[in-house]
User: Fold this.
Amino acid sequence: MKTLIKNIKELVQVEDNIREKVCGKDMAELNTIKNAYLITEDEKILDFGEMSALKDENAHTVIDATNRLVFPSFCDSHTHLVYAGSREIEYIDKIKGLSYEEIAERGGGILNSAKRLQEASEDELYEDAQKRLDEIIRMGTGAVEIKSGYGLNTESELKMLRVIKRLKENSPLTIKSNFLGAHGVSMEYRGRQGEFVDLVINEMIPLVAKDNLADFIDVFCDKGFFTVEETDRMLTQGRKYGMRPKIHANELDYSGGVQVAVKHDALSCDHLEFVGDEEIKVLLNSNTMPTVLPGAAFFLNMQLSPVKKMMNAGLPVAMASDFNPGSSPSGNMQTIVSFACVNYRMTPQEAFNATTINSAYAMGISKTHGSIAKGKIANFYITKEIPNLEYMPYYYGVNKVDRVFLNGFEYFSQN
Ligand code: NIG
Ligand code: FE
Assistant:
């Protein structure tokens, strides 16, 4: 089945040769075609170009995109969107001045989400997550990575991962799952963190692998959470069982997380508020995508990752939502692009590269997603009538997406 989108005001992020990622100064370049057409066949992109070059207007569906732009769907490479309940009370406590530690002492934070998740049924978790997926699709996301990590015990971690597997099977989104057994330590294991790490290594990882429940393995490697040595042990075991590392690092301190991520050839290392010359040097000699999460930095009012410094050094940068109930209760990638521009002084072009092609790399799918290229999966959206691509981050806070196509099929239309 063929679909033709014609009279596109500007077709964004087009590629003749597929790149796996965009680095340093090249991030400022975003290839576009003005007054363009796009043709899809079944689930793939067949052709695109200037309207003047369009030869054949025959297609099953023809859509006129006059005054509208077409973008490749966002790839959101870091989320925790399977969770139970919400944590707005902690949000108020934070506003009133309570620290993360004080909230945790009251049973808040990750422990709060873990308690609720343990009590929730698999069906409840699935239905809530489906609603969140529907929400992010309508805002332009076409692929998403989802982590476990609110289980804090074997049974609940497996439950979370089974929910993610069901979402993968039933959602039009491309989904990757990440096993984050080491997100925090449950009350039961307080003071016995080493034994918890042993549990992750000896029990959880083999069971997760047995049922093929995770593409990746994650660890929260940071001050007050898991040490470099513990991370090293868990990643070694995860890799043995076929899971590529993709970890949380350097959100709270120079934790050594970047170094251990690179040592294990991690696909990405995420957060990166604390990055100095040493970390940049290590990342430059690696296949690891530095990934920044502007939503969490905004919501927690944290110091910002030195994104410009990383790009000036020649590094690629990806950005993702970190959608989770504690530190980033939003999966809106359009807002992430606005934060990228305002807070990190990225140009809209750099911000779109960070949230499409580079975030596709950070979830291992940049050969098939993250740009408009022949043969890639036809995941894209048509905007409302807007003047140009800069308007996307500028007119922030509302949804500029009008129609969404996933795997070549129209999934959502505002009309
Ligand atoms: O990515 N940094 C670690 N974990 C999550 C938040 C966890 C929570 O508070 O629920 C994050 O921000
Ligand atoms: Fe996270």
